[in-house]
Amino acid sequence: MKKVNLSWFGAFLFFSTLLFAACKKDHPGETYTATGTLHDWKGNCLPDIAHGAWYVGLAPGDSNYVEVGIYVEKMGTYRIATDRQNGVQFADSGSFIATGYQSVRLKPAGAFIHPGTTDFSISFGHTICGFSINVDTVPVVTINRWKFTAGGHTYEGPATGNLLVYTDGSGGEFDINGHVDNSTDTAISIGLRMPPHVDTVLPGIYPTGDPATNNYFFLEASHTSVIYRANPLLADKVLLTIRIAGFTTAPGGGRQVIGTFSGTALEDATGEPVEIRDGTFSVAQ
To answer: Which terminus of the chain has fewer Cβ atoms in its 10 Å neighbourhood, N or C?
Structure first.
């Protein structure tokens, strides 16, 4: 029987293993596709949150996006997109640099065509989930005017807008001020905090109950007594939701900020909440 040189054979196996490992080694700059799931361990879709206000015919702004939960099983690059519905598609791409629960911001492209609820489908890996967007019609508002109804009375009048940008980069404040027709005694004041590093007015939702933003609403009489108010200090009693829908061009030129507001405010005379309905404004930025 022919004898095998075990030392030669062992060396052959050793160098063959090194060669195979070298072929499998990750090369710098090489990319991999991430894998994962949209489901939790029970098989339910992970939470999603829609941010911003959505209107027919208005291109969504930077504050409009949908945050979707994902469980990442393998790191790498990704591109996630929904189907196109009602003129809009959501998508995001990037790289996951860690495994486990992550969230991505799906940004919209396009503009909604019809009002109502629009359903979107999204897939990742072998899982499929979905989310819905409630689309409103753009309010019809007279240029440089405000209006709302409360306590059985409709208040309205001329309005102006002013954007103050903080020089330290912490954001700014957009103020809407006006008074009732034929009287300067009754005045309205709305203040909306813009996010950091922004030098313009952003469409979106601005609730009065968030201490971090300090958004507020006041209707005053004679500039000394308050009729209605809503601010973060009253968040346990009242909440007014102010929406900046988008922008339009005034007949003589210039950009107008269009918005709505509704919810509850505090009536100072009674100390009780009062419903604020059908609030609208259109002011120059």
So the answer is: N
Mean of per-residue pLDDT scores for the chain: 84
Q: What is the pLDDT of residue 182?
A: 80
At 168-192, the pLDDT tens digits run: 888 889 999 999 888 777 889 999 9
Q: For residue 218, how far is the Cα from the chain centroid?
A: 25
User: Structural domain boundaries of the chain?
Assistant: 35-135, 145-284
Alpha-carbon Rg of the chain, whole angstroms?
28
Contact (Cβ atoms closer than 8 angstroms) between residue 245 and residue 281: no
Nearest to 51 by CA among 99, 97, 104, 14: 104
CB atoms within 10 A of CB 264: 20
Contacts 24+ apart (CB under 8 A), 93-96: 95/34, 96/34, 96/36, 96/72
pTM greater than the 0.70 cutoff: no
Does an H or E element contain 50, and which?
Answer: strand 48-51
Q: Which residue has the higher pLDDT, 170 or 112?
A: 112
What CATH topology corresponds to 35-135? Immunoglobulin-like (2.60.40)
How many CB atoms are closer than 10 A to CB 207?
A: 16
